[in-house]
Specification:
Layout (H helix, E strand, L loop, with lengths): L2 H12 L3 E5 L2 E6 L1 H20 L13 E2 L6 E15 L2 H28 L7 H27 L11 E16 L2 E8 L6 E4 L11 H13 L2
Parallel strand pairs: 2-7, 3-7
Antiparallel strand pairs: 1-2, 4-5, 5-6
Length: about 220
C-alpha cells in the first residue's frame, strides 16, 4: 500500500471515534476494536516495508502515534509543557542575542530589588543606591558589548557556544491499570499525525472520586 492508501484506510478506521483538538494536535480516544484494526494496518505497513527492504524503528511513524497499545487508559489529562534545547546554529544565536540580553537585564533588576527588600540582608538606602548604580553600569557595558558583537558578527570565530531555547508543546498524562495496579505515564503529542489513546473507563460510577466523576460527566457530554 502507498502512503495515500494507508492514510485513507486509517481515516476510515478512526472516523467514528472521539477526536479532541488541543493546541494544534488531534487526540483520538479509541476502543479495543478500533485499536485492533489500527494494529492490523500497522502490521501491513511493516510487512510492506520489510518486503521492500525498508528498516525502521517505527514503521507507523508517518501515519499516527499509537500511545498505549498494551494497556488501556482509564484517565487522561491534556496540558502544555515546555522543553529546553540547546542551539548551536550561529545565525540563530545571533537572532537570539537581543532577546537574551533583555531577559538577563530584567531578571537581574528583579533579583537585586528582592535582595534589597529582604530584611535579612539589612541593606541601607545608601547601599541600595550604590548596588543599583553598579548594576546599571554592568547593564550598560553588556549592551555596548552586544552591540559590538552584532555589528561585526561575522568577525567572531566563537561568539556564544550555546544558549537554551524553551519551546512549548502539547503533552498527555494518562493512567493505565496493569495487573491490578495503576500506572501513570506521560508523553508528548505530535502535531503532524493523529495521536491514538486506547481509552476504556469501566470503573463503576460509585467507586469514582468526586473529581473523576466530574471528568466522566464532562467527557460523556463532550462526545456529542
Amino acid at each position: 500500500m502507498n502512503y495515500q492508501e494507508v492514510h485513507q484506510q486509517l481515516n476510515t478506521i478512526l472516523k467514528n471515534e472521539k477526536a479532541i483538538e488541543y493546541n494544534g494536535i488531534v487526540l483520538h480516544l479509541i476502543k479495543t476494536e478500533t485499536l485492533q484494526e489500527v494494529l492490523k494496518l500497522e502490521l501491513s505497513v511493516r510487512a510492506d516495508n520489510l518486503e521492500n527492504g525498508i528498516e525502521k524503528k517505527n514503521h507507523f511513524y508517518d501515519y499516527a502515534k499509537i500511545i498505549n497499545p498494551e494497556f488501556p487508559a482509564f484517565k487522561y489529562t491534556l496540558s502544555m509543557k515546555h522543553k529546553k534545547k540547546e542551539i548551536f546554529d550561529p545565525m540563530k544565536v545571533q537572532k537570539a542575542l537581543p532577546a537574551e540580553f533583555e531577559i538577563w537585564k530584567n531578571k537581574s533588576r528583579v533579583k537585586l530589588e528582592n535582595e534589597i527588600k529582604d530584611e535579612a540582608n539589612a541593606i541601607t538606602d545608601d547601599q541600595a543606591k550604590i548596588l543599583r548604580e553598579a548594576l546599571e553600569k554592568e547593564i550598560d557595558l553588556s549592551r555596548v558589548n552586544i552591540e559590538k558583537v552584532l555589528e561585526n558578527y561575522e568577525n567572531y570565530d566563537v561568539v556564544i557556544s550555546t544558549f537554551e531555547e524553551y519551546t512549548y508543546y502539547p503533552a498527555l498524562y494518562y493512567v493505565m491499570e496493569q495487573k491490578g495496579k495503576n500506572k501513570a505515564a506521560d508523553t508528548h503529542l505530535r502535531q503532524d499525525v493523529p495521536n491514538l489513546l486506547w481509552y476504556e473507563d469501566n470503573r463503576p460510577y460509585s467507586e469514582l472520586r468526586s473529581n473523576d466523576r466530574m471528568s466522566r460527566i464532562i467527557q460523556t457530554f463532550d462526545r456529542y
